[in-house]
Amino acid sequence: MKTEGFNLRDIKLEPMTLKDLDRVLQIESRSYQHPWSRRAFVSEVTDNSYAYYYVARLGDVIVGYVGMWIILEEAHITNIAVDPDYRRLGIGRYMLETMFDRAREHGATRMTLEVRVSNVTAQNLYKKLGFAERGIRKGYYTDTHEDAIVMWKEDLGPQKPKAGRVKWMV
Asked: How high is the mean pLDDT of the chain?
């Protein structure tokens, strides 16, 4: 890990490709007790017309990733992780703030996500970014049957979908 002189301006958020999956899966397995499979990521990146997945690069190193679905005016964060060696540097916040912009570009006006009730660190970040708790999904996480808090950010902006900018409108 090289974070001496680290600056968020050095992070580049780029569309995830299949070539990125080995590193994404490393981060996924270091971040979650029950990580997504390669097949799940391949499906999201290649087959899901609602999905937008990005990797955060610091130089040549992928340090995080984020994915969302956009359906009409709603964006849904499906997965986000930062390599444990690069946490607490603002990368997760940067990725989410960039996703707000990308979601607006594609016509979304609000965003949602689910977070484990035990993941207080993530909940605090989401609240700082304007998400509010709106409900509980009982037993949502199939690995542990832990509940999920449903959070919404209602103020992404008033843009309407633009033909050619939203995959399913092309």
From this structure: 89
Residue 15 lies inside a defined structural domain of this protein: yes
Q: pLDDT tens for residues 63-86?
A: 999 999 999 999 999 999 999 999
| Residue 122 domain flag | yes
- What is the C-alpha separation between 156 and 142, in angstroms, rounded? 30
Which residues fall within 8 angstroms of residue 43, CB to CB, at 6 or more apart? none
Question: 73, 74, 105, 114: which one is catalytic?
Answer: 114
CATH number of the domain to which 67 belongs: 3.40.630.30
Is residue 126 part of the annotated active site? The answer reads yes
Asked whether residue 3 is domain-assigned, the answer is no
Out of 53, 54, 94, 126, which one is annotated catalytic?
Answer: 126
For residue 75, give its domain range: 8-169
Q: Is 1 exposed, middle or buried (0-12, 13-18, 19+ CB in 10 A)?
A: exposed
- 2 domain residue, yes or no: no
Residue 34 pLDDT greater than 90, yes or no: no
Q: How many domains does the chain have?
A: 1
Q: Identify the band that residue 168 occupies on the pLDDT scale cut at 50, 70 and 90.
A: low
Catalytic residue status for 114? yes
